[in-house]
Design a protein that fits this description.
Helix content: 25-40%
Number of helices: 12
Strand order of the largest sheet: 3-6-2-1-9-11-12-10
Low-confidence stretches: none
Bound molecules: aspartic acid, magnesium ion
Number of domains: 2
Structural class: alpha/beta
CATH architecture of the largest domain: 3-Layer(aba) Sandwich
CATH class of the largest domain: Alpha Beta
CATH topology of the largest domain: Carbamate kinase
Number of strands: 20
Length: 407
């Protein structure tokens, strides 16, 4: 007998029929003798609707009331699933964040988890009652009010609950069959991965693969929670997110991610003197603008340089304003461009393999794709290219690293 956490996303609980389907999946685990805690999201579209209402009512709203409203979606699903399970003859009870209590700080709208008191829930699980917890929501002790964990936060709720309950695994049910080598809508020959390491998943999630909230992956890694991503509609194993030690055959490259949320800024003709970089990036940092990739070129005479870097696309205008306002920064011209995409190849095997970046550059060169900026980390190589080439680049790289599924 094992204690497990099952989490169901919005599309898995979109209507009563689908909630019945979820209840059947839960029943199977109960019948197999497992103690089951379930974490549910709001029904598909519900949270968006609630957020829209809040914005309509008050564009510059009080974050505490935002949480009061948007946490409601999960409350509905937890009650509906408990009812459906009861009607199937399974002992079940809903749990809201405050009832557990699922304690967070008071940063409303993006609260962080402080502590989960699982004593009462563990007792119910021992009595073989299915505990259906509303994801996404918690309670802040500071102000004794409902909080939410940020969009997509139910994944984090589930992983945190699994860690607190010391569950054997945390199964995240969604509308895709697992984690793929790249976006299957873009590359038909993308393959589902059987296993992926926490670190690789963390990179994939933060680069825009939307299967798991990034925070949930970091939490799983820190607490060593075995996570499985699988489909609530297909009866087959999904992708296990695990520790590196569990993967015998390490891929040099496991996946390819792309992100459109980047913009490029070039300062042309910056003076090549000490302190210039600090003058440029200081004000950006003070303006809370996250700079990611950076390159600096020195002109032939060594007197001037061009500095190119990327910022989140949403911050492009703000970043340009900050630079124009910073009197200490002298340059000939400033060029902003949001028509770019960051493409990354990710794999823990890179640590022990040479030539990963070279393969990437070669594949892109063969297609005549120009690289604007390059950055690397221990398990990732990223390039910034024109957005128009996104699909061609991702497909070519997928082939170049031998990731294509057999036809
Ligand atoms: N319902 C929340 C959202 O859509 C949390 C979640 O589903 O993970 O962001
Ligand atoms: Mg989600």
């Amino acid at each position: 007998m094992a204690r497990i956490v099952m989490k169901f996303g919005g599309t898995s609980v979109a209507d009563i029929d689908r909630i019945r389907n979820v209840a059947n999946r839960v029943k199977k685990e109960v019948d197999a003798g497992n103690q089951v805690a379930v974490v549910v999201s709001a029904m598909a579209g519900t949270t968006d609707q609630l957020v829209n209402w809040v914005n309509e009512a008050s564009p510059l709203h009080d974050a505490r009331e935002y949480d009061t409203v948007v946490a409601a979606g999960e409350q509905i699903t937890s009650g509906l699933l408990a009812l459906t399970l009861q009607d199937m003859g399974i002992a079940a009870r809903s749990w809201l964040g405050w009832q557990i209590p699922f304690k967070t700080d008071n940063v409303h709208g993006a609260a962080r988890i402080k502590e989960i008191d699982t004593a009462k829930m563990a007792q119910r699980l021992d009595e073989n009652v299915v505990c259906v917890m509303a994801g996404f929501q918690g309670i802040s002790e500071e102000d004794n009010r409902i909080t939410t964990l940020g969009r997509g936060g139910s994944d984090t709720s589930a992983v945190a609950l699994a860690a607190a309950l010391d569950a054997e695994r945390c199964d995240i049910y969604t509308d895709v069959e697992g984690v793929y080598t790249t976006d299957p809508r873009m590359v038909p020959r993308a393959r589902k991965l059987d296993k992926i390491t926490y670190e690789e998943m963390l990179e994939m999630a933060s680069l825009g693969a939307k299967v798991l909230q990034t925070r949930s992956v970091a939490m799983a890694m820190n607490h060593n929670v075995r996570v499985q991503v699988l489909s609530s509609f297909a009866e087959k194993p999904g992708t296990l997110v695990v520790d590196e030690d569990e993967i015998v055959e390490k891929q040099v490259v496991s996946g390819i991610a792309y992100s459109n949320n980047e913009a490029k800024i070039t300062l042309v003709g910056v003076e090549n003197t000490p302190g210039v970089a600090s003058e440029i990036f200081g004000p950006l940092s003070a303006g809370n603008i996250n700079v990611d990739m950076i390159v600096q070129n020195i002109s032939e005479d060594g007197l001037k340089t061009d500095v190119t870097f990327t910022v989140p696309a949403a911050d492009l205008d703000k970043a340009q304003d900050v630079l124009k306002a910073a009197d200490a920064v002298k340059y000939d011209s400033l060029i902003g461009d949001s028509d770019v995409v960051k493409i990354s190849v990710i794999g823990v095997g890179m640590r022990s393999h040479a030539g990963v970046a070279a393969t990437m550059f070669h594949a892109l060169a063969e297609k005549g794709i120009n690289i604007h900026v390059i950055s690397t980390s221990e398990i990732k190589v990223s390039v910034l290219i024109d957005a128009a080439y996104t699909e061609l680049a991702v497909r070519s790289l997928h082939t170049a690293y031998g990731l294509d599924a057999e036809e």
